[in-house]
Design brief:
Elements (H helix, E strand, L loop, with lengths): L1 E6 L3 E8 L2 E9 L6 H14 L9 E6 L2 H15 L4 E2 L20 H14 L3 E6 L2 E7 L5 E8 L1 H11 L19 H28 L4 E5 L3 H4 L8 E2 L3 H13 L13
Parallel strand pairs: 1-4, 4-5, 6-9, 9-10
Antiparallel strand pairs: 1-2, 2-3, 6-7, 7-8
């Protein structure tokens, strides 16, 4: 089985593929201090719940924006699973040429999303990822990663508001019935949800001035379902886009169904 792990600043998404099909997936909080042993125990528990075991993992691919977790996952792969992991970076063959001024500055998750979006939805396209940050990525008609935009994510923006406004309390991040709040809770919800949706739509509009009006817009990320219903620009929501990108890149570099054992591994 192929294990794909995408480590974000706030959440980590884990998926298990067999014969090119996603069999199950989980989302856990990203803990920078989590050791390789702790990660293996957590993963083993998820697998056992479905009747699988760590011994069945014969391939592993990682995209990560958290260096501490990257090191722990590599250690887990090599020393516990006996697998040589493929770690995605700007040097990995993703099939997506990078036109960024410094390709090293493009996060691995954004490259993985690009590979999946091109394969699943064609080009040109725009990927909006609702995570710790909200990111927009532009893919040209020739399948090239052109660049993007980064803004504070929904939860970061909300946390900043609650932290700096003494009389405002935390609210549930759901859209209110009306854009015009009739109480403080609704007013905050409208500002956060509708404000983010408006930001998404405006940046997509600006991107399309370069990419063209026929550009498809794909939303993904853990907070997509909170915002997408209020956006006009989103064409499709794909919460598992990153996991599918990991599979696509693994198969491109290693091959479908091929084990990748670490030296000295079983």
């Amino acid at each position: 089985m192929l294990l794909g792990i995408d480590v974000g600043n706030t959440q980590t998404v884990i998926g298990v593929y067999r014969d090119g099909t996603l069999r199950d997936h989980w989302r856990i909080s990203t803990e920078r201090e989590r050791t390789a042993d702790e990660t293996a125990l957590t993963l083993g528990g998820f697998l056992a719940f479905r009747g699988w075991s760590l011994d069945q993992i014969d391939g592993m691919i990682i995209s990560s924006v958290v260096p501490e977790m990257t090191r722990a996952l590599i250690h887990m792969a090599r020393d516990i699973l006996g697998v040589a992991p493929l770690v995605v970076d700007n040097d990995t063959d993703t099939g997506i040429p990078i036109l960024y001024e410094d390709p090293r500055q493009v996060g691995a998750d954004r490259l993985v999303n690009a590979a999946a979006a091109v394969a699943r939805y064609g080009t040109p396209c725009i990927i909006v990822d609702f995570g710790t940050a909200t990111t927009w990525d532009a893919i040209t008609g020739d399948g090239e990663y052109l660049g993007g935009t980064i803004a504070p994510g929904v939860e970061i923006s909300a946390d900043a508001l609650f932290r700096h406004a003494a009389r405002l309390s935390r609210v549930e991040l759901v859209a209110p019935a009306s854009a015009i709040g009739r109480n403080t809770v609704e007013s905050i919800q409208s500002g956060i949800i509708n404000g983010t949706a408006g930001q998404v739509d405006r940046i997509v509009e600006l991107f399309k001035e370069t990419l063209g009006e026929g550009t498809r817009v794909i939303a993904t990320g853990g907070l997509a379902e909170v915002i997408v219903g209020k956006c006009r620009a989103i064409d499709v929501t794909d919460p598992l886009l990153t996991l599918d990108g990991l599979r696509i890149i693994y198969e491109r570099n290693v091959g479908a169904g091929k084990p990748q054992r670490a030296k000295g591994g079983a």
